[in-house]
Amino acid sequence: MRPATLRDVALRAGVSIRTVSNVVNDYARVAPETRDRVQAVIDELGYRPNLLARNLKQGRSQIIAVAVPELHVPYFAELVRLIIAEGRRRGYLVLVDDTDGNDAQERSYVGEAHPLNVDGIILSPLALTDADVAGRASRTPLVLLGERVSGAAADLVAIDNVAAAASATRHLIDRGRRRVAAIGVHPATGTGTADLRLEGFRRAHRDTGLPIDDSLLASTPRFHRDHGAEAMARLLDRPDRPDAVFCFTDLLALGAIRAALDRGLRVPEDLAVAGFDDIEDGRFSTPSLTTISPDKAAIAVAAVDRVVDRVESGEPAAPVTVTAPFRLVVRESTAGRGAA
Predict the structure, then answer these.
(1) Does domain 161-294+328-335 have CATH number 3.30.2320.30?
(2) How far is CA 14 from CA 11, 32, 40, 312, 322, in A?
(3) Is 229:54 a contact under the CB 8 Å cutoff?
(4) Centroid of chain to Cα 9
(5) How far is residue 178 CA from its own chain's centroid?
(6) Cα–Cα distance measured from residue 185 to residue 208, given in angstroms and rounded to the nearest whole number
(7) Residue 252: which residues within 8 A CB-CB, separation 6 or more?
(8) Residue 302 contacts by C-beta under 8 Å, 6 or more apart in sequence?
(9) Cα–Cα distance for residue pair 107/62, rounded to 1 Å
(10) Where do runs of H (alpha helix) occur along the chain?
(11) Are strands 142-145 and 120-123 parallel, antiparallel or unpaired?
(12) 27-62 pLDDT tens trace
C-alpha cells in the first residue's frame, strides 16, 4: 500500500488540503472540532508529513554532513556514532563521509557550495590548512574537529592535546621509567595532532627534569596498528632499548605491545606502554591499555550544538573554540595486573 497523502486525508475528512496542512503544521486558525476530525483521519490513515519537502521549502534540509579521514579507525567510528545519536536527538539526519585525508576531498567541504544540500558540516581534517578555510565564502556552518586547522575562520571542537600527552608521559615517568620513547611523530607536518602530542611529551620531560633522548622519537606515516608495531621493532633493535613508550594513538600502542610480546618482553614489567583515544579495543586487550580518554560524548554534543546553533540563528558570528575534557585511564599496560 502506498503511503497516505494530504489529499487522502482531506478527502476522508471532508476538508481542503490547506486545512489538513494547517493541522499538520499546528496553525491556530482551525476550528477545534475540525482539528479533531482531521487529526482522527491522520491517525487512522497513518499519514506522515514529508519532512524533507517541508524543510526544503523553508530553505533547510535538516541534514548535517560529517566527514572524517579514516572511518575504519575505531576512534572515528566511535565518535561518529555519538554524533549521529546527538544529531538525531536534535532532529537532524547525519550523513557520513570518509575523506581518506585527501586534500581535494576535504576542500570540497569548505568550498563555496557543498554538492549535497546540507544545513551544516562537521569536518575532521587531515590535510586541510588554515589557508584553505580562511577565505571560504560559503555560508554553510562549518565545525572543525581537532587542531589540524587551529587558526581558521570556523568553529573548532578539540581537547588540549598538549596537556593530555604530558599527562600520559608524566605517568610513565612517575612510575620510575627513565628511557621513555614516543611513537607517532610526524616530522614533516609542522602542525596538527602529532606535533601537539609531541610537545606534551617534551613538556612532561621538562617538568620532571628528565632529559629527552631524541633518538627515541619514532616516526610513523599514520596512526595504525602496523605502524606502531614497525616503530616498536625499530626501537627494540637498539642496544639501549626504551623501558616505556607513549604512543600517540591506541592503535599504535596495540601494535607496539604486539611487537614487544613477539620479542619476549613483558608488558609492563619490561616495557610500559600508554596510548591515546580510549578505544574499546584497548579495554579488552591483553594487557589492557593505559590511555588518554577524550570525552568523545562531549565532543559530539559540542560539535552538533555549534552546527545547530549556527543553522537556527542564521546570523554570522565570530568563530568559537570549545575545549572538551579528557582523563588519564590507568590499566594493566603500565600498572600491571589488578590496575583499575
Answers:
(1) no
(2) 5, 15, 12, 36, 53
(3) no
(4) 44
(5) 33
(6) 21
(7) 183, 184, 220, 223, 224, 225, 227, 228, 231, 275
(8) 157, 322, 324
(9) 22
(10) 6-13, 17-24, 32-45, 51-57, 74-89, 103-108, 130-134, 161-174, 193-208, 225-236, 250-262, 280-284, 296-313, 332-335
(11) parallel
(12) 777 888 999 999 999 988 888 776 555 555 556 678
The predicted model scores a pTM of 0.82
pLDDT bin (cut points 50, 70, 90) of residue 188 is low
Could you tell me the three cell numbers for 235? 626501537
CA dihedral for 99, 105, 111, 112, sign (positive or negative): negative
Distance CA 182, CA 205 (A): 12
Query: How do residues 145-163 score in pLDDT, each as one tens digit?
Result: 987 776 667 899 999 999 9
The yes/no answer on whether domain 1-43 falls in CATH 1.10.260.40 is yes
Helix (H, G, I), strand (E, B) or coil at 252: helix
Edge-to-edge strand ranges of the sheet holding 93-98: 93-98, 63-68, 120-123, 142-145, 155-159, 321-324
Q: Which three cell numbers stand for residue 91?
A: 532532529
**Which residues neighbour 217 within 8 Å (Cβ) at sequence distance 6 or greater?**
181, 182, 185, 198
The domain made up of 63-159+296-325 has a fold known as Rossmann fold (3.40.50)
Length of the chain: 340
- Kindly list the domain boundaries of the chain, sorted by start residue: 1-43, 63-159+296-325, 161-294+328-335
The x, y and z cell numbers of residue 81, run together, are: 556514532
As given in the structure block, the three cell numbers for residue 180 are 621513555
How do the residues of the chain divide into helix, strand and coil, expressed in percent and rounded to 5? 45, 15, 40
